[in-house]
Amino acid sequence: MKKQLTHLDESGQAKMVDVGHKPDTVRTAVARGRVSMQPETLQLIMAGNMKKGDVLGVAQLAGVMAAKRTSDLIPLCHPLMLNHVDVSCTPNPQTNSVNIEATARVTGKTGVEMEALTAVSIAALTIYDMAKAVDRSMTISDIRLIAKSGGQSGTYQANEPS
Questions:
Q1: Rounded to 5 degrees, what are φ and ψ at 11?
Q2: What whole-number distance in Å separates Cα of residue 111 and Cα of residue 109?
Q3: Which residues are catalytic, by number?
């Protein structure tokens, strides 16, 4: 069966998908990403010694706020009444990075993949913003959907790199 892009009409123009006929189901999505940095930068973040404040706490809050505003940022996303958003920012001294994970959940007619991905993206950008004064070489990478459940397309689980 050939998959079709749902946000394009028959003539190839962008459109918002009509989800009115779909049943409400519990939908969950998990996304992850990473911000890599110099070891000294990670140490400052972990010690809470950045001039702008608690980098990880602010990034977590920014991620939650971003998930709630996803439809304001991405033109064809439906506004959702999220049941739950959780964002974690975990320092990893072995890789000189902060690993970010976001989980979003809704009971509704459409999925929350974009909300989870937006949460990770904005949390990563917040880390960059708060630490750029000491390390402009930071890189944001590996933002991806890890898992989703619910809805007509069922469950998706990403293959994790070994």
A1: -95, 5
A2: 7
A3: 129
